[in-house]
Design brief:
Strand content: 15-25%
CATH architecture of the largest domain: 2-Layer Sandwich
Number of domains: 2
Strand order of the largest sheet: 3-4-6-5
Structural class: alpha+beta
Largest sheet: 4 strands, antiparallel
Distance between the termini: 49 Å
Order of helices and strands: HHHEEHEEHEEH
Length: 159
């Protein structure tokens, strides 16, 4: 039975979205909208899209195929592990005021850049890799110095 739809605050709706994404695989906004309606929330596609962006949800490819929504904060420990796995391939991280330059062992730049891109750090817009050099562009609203410090911490972390 579908509960009576109610207009609750954005905070309560976003909490329910987080709960639904953590509770089961949710592959589309349409599916998520249906689950919200069953839980008694009235929501349009545009509102749902804004809510997903606001809570940091993103679509992630599943190993068995397809994609589901995940919350960025839920995937950070795995991202940190990936950085630790390649830290011995990274020689240096330098901020030049515009971009962050990551120097790697010869032939390793592509693999390291892939880790950076897959981690979807909020500070990073994307990367370009050569053989032993990666240029990482800061995302809008972030300085290259912020991004450089974060990458330095992630690659050099021994914990």
């Amino acid at each position: 039975m579908v509960a009576k739809l109610r207009e609750l605050g954005a905070s309560e709706r976003r909490d329910e979205i987080r709960h639904l994404i953590r509770a089961r695989p949710v592959g589309t906004q349409e599916e998520l909208g249906d689950l919200l309606r069953r839980a008694g929330f009235a929501v349009t596609q545009a509102t749902l899209s804004r809510d997903l962006a606001r809570i940091g949800a993103r679509r992630a490819t599943r190993p068995d195929g397809g994609a589901t929504y995940e919350l960025a904060e839920d995937s950070l420990p795995a991202a940190y592990e990936s950085f630790r796995a390649v830290r011995d391939l990274v020689d240096s991280v330098l901020d030049n005021g515009t971009l962050v330059i990551v120097r790697t062992r010869p032939g390793a730049a592509s693999a390291v850049a892939r880790i950076i891109d897959l981690s979807r750090l909020p500070e990073a817009s994307g990367s370009i890799a050569g053989d032993d050099t990666i240029f990482v562009a800061p995302d809008r609203g972030h300085r290259s110095s912020q991004l450089g410090k974060k990458l330095e911490r992630l690659f050099k972390s021994r914990n």
